[in-house]
Amino acid sequence: MEKNITASETKAARWPDWLTMVIIILIVFNGLPFLAPVFMKLGWEGPARAIYLVYGGLCHQMAQRSFFLFGPRGFQMYNLAELPLDVSGLRTGEQALVLRRFLGNESLGWKVAWSDRMVYMYSAPLFLAIAYAFLRRRGQVKPLPLWAFFVLLLPMAIDGGTHWVSDLAGIGQGFRYTNEWLAGLTGYAFPASFYVGDAFGSFNSLMRLLSGVAFGLAVSGLLYPYMDLAMSASTSALPAEAPLTGTGQAWEEGLEGRTLH
After folding, report:
1. Residue 187, CB-side half-sphere exposure with 13 Å CA sphere
2. C-alpha dihedral sign at 103, 108, 113, 119
3. Which H or E element spans position 110?
4. Potential cystine with 156: which of 87, 144, 180, 215 (Cβ 3.0-4.6 Å)?
5. Is the pTM for the entire model greater than 0.85?
């Protein structure tokens, strides 16, 4: 069986699939925050602090709403009362700054460079991109309807908004920290650890999981199909043979007419 390799095929080879590039970028983008605690554990404080600094522009990085690596349970979160920090008597902004600056220690482990909600927000588009790579093989994938897009944004607006209002009373003192309203609604059906605080498994952590994943699915579910259409249109609009010069032209001319056996 023979197949001729033409200039048009080499043109296609020069254009990597946009989705592959998105997946690679998201893997790096999601992986770096987890490298920060690894670097701290290894004693590479310089690279670790560089990652904390860069991702600090994207996230509040408050310790009580972040994952820690290399602690007693390996991978965990802490409530505010479990951290070796005294934020009583401080204003909300000062409290947030103290919690942001705490990176961890050998006993508690080291903090991931962004909060749990950000982990969910940006890992969801990564997993959806991988799923999209398989789904589009079966045919064109339709963009998420606008009504579904806004419905998926609602958990973020509600949870993020109520957290912001609650923190105005002081971090660890507002209605979203104790969640007494929820305990009353549920008749205290769950353990106290479910209602109070932000540790993993609490109501607050589950809401950040839901809102973060929903936000990521909303954005990527709307964006990926449109990106696919736009990139497909751009590729089809390219000329069959793009002029090359120098070594590129010689390389392409050498490929023309070559056969594979």
Report:
1. 1
2. negative
3. strand 109-115
4. 215
5. no
